[in-house]
Amino acid sequence: MPVMQSRLPSLTGLRFIAALMVFALHVTYQNTYISGSAGKTLQDVFARSGFYGVSFFFVLSGFVLTWSARADDRATSTWRRRLVKIYPNHLATMALAAVLMLFAADVFTAKGIVANLFLVQSWTPDLEISRSMNQVSWSLSCELFFYLSFPLLFRVINRVPVRRLWAVGGVLVALILAVPAVSEAAIGGVALPYFADGSLSYEQMWFVYLFPPVRALEFVLGMVVARLVMAGAWPRIGLLPAFLIAAAGYAVNLQLPYLFGVAGVAAIWLMPLIAAAASADVKGSASPFRGRVMTWLGDISFAFYMVHGLVVAYFYRWVIAEYQPAPIVGAAAVLGVFAVSLALSHAMFVWLEQPLMRRFSTPRAARQATAPAAAASRPLASVKSGD
């Protein structure tokens, strides 16, 4: 299978579906916007949707970085591109979180601010640190670890013969399945009432869900799947069957014990979808995730993911929890916070993320080398004074 195509628009579109799953968890389960029996049904349906979406992001990161990696890439180039991708939106939403916290008279801690600033908050089971400021940024702490590790991991995975990649993938899946069992058996802590049936501690939840080395198993699994697809060794599973596998996998995850349902087990069901979407783009076969609207939504999905939690949480605190509106009003509020989050994410993408990616994701020497050629290739009439 040819794999020269670097952009995979179907995967871009799917990124927004994953971000939407996180949004759904936050407006139904963590913040009950819609009351009554309808709200309870939505809570049951989306109780683990956010966990599923995050697992998609982690597997996708490993897949895409491996797919787009070049043999002559330097580690510093990889790190620069990824830092420019995540840090501007992180700092912007961290500042927004600080403003909202000031208005809400929330407590700041120096350790929380420092941990968030350097994206190390997920390395500790301290609840005041790992879920402080903009709470969704905990996943960036994991992503930063993945990015820093990628150059070494890529060299290791690239040396594995294709015929042995399935064995490596099998080991990774076995480890992912073992993590929740290890957490329940070996990690203590004080049980908290809002985890499962009240028998689990935050430390146990942290180990399976937030701890970067554990979540790196999904990232490496994505790397392995990318190599199998690139080598033509992945089974030919169409996009529709793969989507149905992912949907059925979510239904299974809803029935699993809590630590299994929120951990990386989701990656097992999501691998075929990621592989099938990439294959569809390479072959040019039909894909509902490749259209202009889905691609645009995918482009702004990272900004949407970063900003929506703040919009959802503070509107809930200041309006929904205060006035307890009727279900129909709550549903309208969901549409409202979705629209506000979408507008903010579009602004962040257009005015912050995209310009900085264009400016800093390419080394200065490369920009200087290509600038004269680009200018020379333009029609004379289009070259303005000072170009």
Description:
By secondary structure, the protein is mostly helical. Helices cover 74% and strands 0% of the residues. It is built from 17 helices and no strands. α4 (75-104) runs parallel beside α15, α8 runs antiparallel to α9 and α15 packs antiparallel against α16 (327-360). Mean pLDDT is 92; it is low at 369-387.
List keywords for this structure.
17 helices; globular; 387 residues; disordered C terminus; mainly alpha; single chain
Topology:
Elements: H1 9-30, H2 36-46, H3 49-68, H4 75-104, H5 110-117, H6 127-130, H7 138-158, H8 162-186, H9 202-209, H10 212-230, H11 239-255, H12 258-262, H13 266-283, H14 292-299, H15 301-323, H16 327-360, H17 364-377
Helix pairs in contact: 1-2, 1-3, 1-14, 1-15, 3-7, 3-10, 3-13, 4-7, 4-15, 4-16, 7-10, 8-9, 8-10, 10-13, 11-13, 15-16
